[in-house]
Structures are given as C-alpha cells and as structure tokens.
Task: inverse folding
C-alpha cells in the first residue's frame, strides 16, 4: 500500500472512530436506549403524589405503560445530584417530582438534563407564584402540581370559650394573632401553636406573604441584613416565644400529636396538613380555617405558601411521551383535578379546576366550610418569589442565629452576621 493510500485509510479509520465515540457519548447522555415502551416516574408519598400519578394514568385516555417508583424525597434529591453530576443519564426516570424550593438548584446546575415543556400546556392556567420556581432562562421545565397555600386552622370551641369568632381571625396581622393568642392562653389554658425550634417554616410563610425571600430576585444574591420582611418575621417569632403560648416539638409525630391531642388552639400551615387534622375523628366540627395572618408592613397580604412540588421531564428517550402525558392530565384536565380532590384530597395549582363541583364541597369536619374553595382562592393571591439555589443552606444559618436572637443578641447583629456567614459559605 502506498504511503498516500495508507494516510487516507488511517484518516477514514480516525473519522469513523470519532463518530462512533460521539454516538456512544450521545447515547449515554440520552439515556443509552431507544424510545422506551414505558415511561418511569419518581415520586414520594404513596397516599398523595404517587396516588395522583396513578389517577392521572387512569384518566389519560391512551394506552400508556407508566411505572411509578416510590422514593423518599431526600433519596430523589441524592440520586439526581449523584447521577446528573456524573454526566450520565443512565437509570434516570422520564418524570421526576421535585420540591419547588429545591428546583432551581437542579435547573441552574443541569439545564441540559431537563426537557422544556412550554408547548404541552398553557402557563396562564396555573397560579402565577408557581411559575418562577419551575422555569429557568425563559423556558418552562416544570409542570406545577400541588400547592402549599397556607391557612390558619383553629379550634372554634377554644376560641368561643375565649370570646372570639371566625370573624375575629379574618385578615389579621401576626401582631394581632399574638394579642389574641395571649388572651386564648389566659382563658383556656391552651397553647396557641406548636413549633420546632429547628424548623423556620413559619418564617418562610411570613416573608413570602410580603413577596420576599432569603435571596434577592436574581435567586443568587443573599438578602438578609436589609430584608425588612425578614426582620419583621424575626420580631414576630420572638414575640410569640415570649408570649409563652408555644408548645415546642422536635419531630413530625410530636407536631401531629400537639393538635390531634387538643393541646393547641391553632395550626398555621400549608393545606397539606388537612388530612392529618381530620385524622382525629373526635374533633369533627370543632375546626375551621381562616386566611393566614400577614406582616404589618406595606405590601404584605393574607396569603402565603409552605411547601409544594412540581413534575419535571428529563431529557432522555421518552421525553415527548412523558411531556404529553403530563400536559394532558396535570396540565389541562379539569375533571382529573376533581377526582384528585375527592380521592386524594390533593389541591393542585391548575386554576380552571377551582370552579368545579368537588372544589365547592362543604366539609363537615370543618363545620360545613368549603375549605378547598377557600384555599384555591387564597392560592391565587400568593406573591411570587424566586426561591433560588440556597434556601436550606441559608436557613441552617438562620436557625442558629435565631437562637442567638432569642438569648438577647441584637437583631441588627443577628442579620448582619447571618448575611456575612451566608456570603462566605455560598461563594
């Protein structure tokens, strides 16, 4: 073989090799398989999210093999981080449920791993506050699912004993809540609420009601020292502790026991706590729900959020099939949402469903109140915020500084030190 021919032959081999390697790399990125016969989904809670997926499958109207794999939420977070950081999509599901306050961490870190689904549903049909955390760089990656819209659950019998009615709790501030709480404790002996000192969920509720978060609107810049809603929330938290009407808890079971045992007069929480309150049959007819209190500052409203999650499609074979399934069910099926309310008690953020019959149902446990309808109205008033990348990391810092504040540290120093720690840690 002549030298020139050999050189051409080697060049051809090299090109073929490069193409083969590129194909292998592309195959691994896309999941390493052809269009699958079935799609898989990762979710947590068999009685809520997984049950919702199963109902969606039944209502889809097309033959679809959907394999729903139960994982604890923390396990999903760990598996996604491990898999996506490795650059391999092998073993990843087509659909994955992600908590809203964690979503930006994945979308901004691994945008190519997710499939944009803007074309599969109408964004205007969903509560506005759910769209910012589920989108990135002008593309919609998440299909908004359940809401964490908050309400003030309260024992009507305790409040009646103390001389109050539901009207006295409508559209109040946290300062007024504290005043009433002191009176209720004095007249009934019941604590006003239960709190875990290591969980600042109530702080999140307060600041989002004013359209604020731990980061600025860019979701990256730490916003603690000059954050007026956060300052006000800290002041309210300390005032509640000093009012001596807080029943401390250290875990979920103690939290549930506080109201199931009748030890507290109110539960300010997300609507997802409804089934847990209803679990104590002996208290039927003794509960009602009012709007969540607001901060006593301009711009705060009697509506906020605690929790909530959304569905995402990963950029692997089967992505179109998965996106179409979500779009035709969670993205547009009004009747499906009626089934969710009746069968699961799940309140989604698809607003056209709110005028459906199931949403208007009177709940006898709550004295005949149409609690689902009320929550759906409050949901549309929740201010939008950018949860950003570091909610939980910053909150770990704030938990420690909150204890310093309760022990007497000046609030200006508390927020300044928290700001400095967060900036140093999140560089």
Result:
């Amino acid at each position: 073989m002549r030298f020139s021919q050999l050189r051409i032959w080697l060049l051809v081999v090299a090109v073929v090799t490069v193409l083969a390697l590129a194909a292998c790399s592309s195959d691994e990125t896309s999941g390493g398989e052809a269009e699958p016969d079935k799609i898989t989904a990762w979710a947590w809670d068999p009685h809520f999210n997984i049950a919702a997926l199963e109902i969606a499958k039944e209502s889809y109207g097309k033959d679809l093999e959907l394999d729903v794999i139960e994982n604890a939420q923390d396990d999903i977070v760990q598996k996604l981080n491990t898999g996506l950081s490795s650059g391999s999509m092998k073993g990843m599901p087509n659909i994955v449920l992600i908590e809203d306050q964690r979503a930006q961490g994945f979308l901004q870190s691994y945008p190519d791993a997710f499939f944009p689904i803007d074309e599969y549903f109408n964004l205007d049909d969903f509560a506005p506050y759910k769209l910012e955390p589920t989108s990135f760089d002008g593309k919609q990656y998440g299909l908004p699912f359940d809401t964490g819209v908050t309400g003030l659950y309260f024992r009507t019998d305790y409040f009646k004993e103390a001389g109050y009615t539901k009207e006295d709790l409508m559209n109040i501030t946290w300062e007024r809540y504290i005043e009433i709480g002191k009176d209720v404790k004095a007249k009934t002996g019941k604590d006003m609420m239960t709190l875990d000192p290591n969980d600042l969920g109530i702080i999140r509720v307060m600041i989002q009601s004013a359209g604020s978060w731990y980061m600025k609107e860019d979701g990256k810049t730490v916003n603690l020292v000059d954050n007026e809603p956060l300052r006000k929330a800290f002041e309210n938290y300390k005032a509640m502790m000093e009012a001596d009407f807080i029943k401390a808890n250290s875990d979920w079971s103690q939290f549930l026991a506080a109201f199931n045992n009748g030890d507290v007069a109110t539960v300010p929480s997300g609507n997802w706590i409804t089934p847990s309150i209803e679990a104590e049959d002996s208290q039927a007819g003794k509960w009602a729900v009012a709007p969540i209190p607001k901060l006593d500052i301009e711009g705060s409203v009697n509506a906020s959020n605690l929790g909530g999650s959304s569905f995402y499609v990963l950029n692997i074979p089967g992505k179109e099939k998965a996106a179409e399934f979500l779009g035709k069910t969670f993205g547009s099926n009004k009747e499906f949402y009626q089934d969710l309310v009746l069968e699961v008690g799940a309140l989604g953020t698809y607003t056209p469903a709110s005028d459906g019959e199931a949403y208007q149902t009177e709940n006898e446990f709550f004295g005949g109140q149409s609690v689902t309808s009320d929550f759906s109205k409050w949901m549309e008033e929740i201010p939008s915020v950018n949860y950003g990348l570091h909610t939980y990391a910053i909150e770990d810092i704030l938990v420690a500084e909150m204890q310093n504040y309760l022990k007497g540290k000046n609030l200006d120093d508390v927020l300044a030190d928290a700001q400095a720690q967060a900036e140093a840690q999140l560089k």
Observations:
- The chain has a mean pLDDT of 92.
